[in-house]
Amino acid sequence: MESKNNSTPDVYQRVNQLIMARLEQGVAPWQQPWQNTLPQNYLSKKPYRGINCFLLNLFNFQEPYFLTFQQASDLGGKVIKNSKALPVVYWNWLYIDPITQKSVPNPAPQQLPLLEKVPLLRYYNVFNISQIEGIKWQLPQVQPLGANLSIQTAERLLHFMQPQLPPIRVGGSSAYYTPPMDYIQIPEKQHFIKPESYYATLFHECIHATGHAKRLCRKEVVETSSFGSYSYGVEELTAEMGASFLCYHAQILPQVLDNSVAYLESWLKAIKEDKRLLINASARAQKAVDYLLGQQNDE
């Protein structure tokens, strides 16, 4: 059982500081390449989700496996001195009596319809296994995919997702998704520098398409947003993060849409203005990926 931290001064601030530090170094975390395995708990082998994937991928650890301090101790290990923990965030629910405005811990089932349910962001700390000594690690052997096999995987993934997607029109000189007409436009594959770029760009537009009213109904897609507006930025970040997840499933590198100073500074500014931006966008991205892959998850 993973230890949980129930006292958090500002989870958003801690997450944002980690992400902003990488942006200031010239790296967008959602454009970093994944390992063959998503960050996951060493004991349960359960992959982390949403923003946790980006947080735990920030420092390019050789192995993507993590443990809490208590889990390491239970295995006979010891966290190496001066090692810095990374947060894993999760949502908890707080039940409020609308009359007294007081929280109701552990409400009975018959009380639930009478209470307000408020999401509360929490976190616990984990360490990469490279920060832990005294344990003989047993790690699975993972073979990297070759380029040709990656493209085949990307094509199979696209074929699998197609029932959840609008029509994909191939041709023209630009890639986009149009909500009013509900279709994706993508240039022909030979117009891209490499096949991986074609699929990464297409995955970006696929995430946008999940926001349509008849799918996940994201207001940033359903409502008209002008270029450069806050809503436009939120949706773009959602699409970039979601495409990064799909690139992992296809075993191809995320598409670097832009890594200019202006691009990075725009995200730094947006994160400073809205501390919930990163976590909310990553949650939308994870939900979009779950939808396309036919996965149900209540997290």
TrEMBL record:
Name all Polyvalent protein metallopeptidase domain ranges. 162-283
- Could you tell me which residue ranges the N-terminal domain spans? 10-127
Question: What GO MF annotations does this protein's record show?
Answer: single-stranded DNA binding
Name assigned to this protein = Antirestriction protein ArdC
Source organism of this protein record: Flexibacter flexilis DSM 6793
Lineage runs: Bacteria, Pseudomonadati, Bacteroidota, Cytophagia, Cytophagales
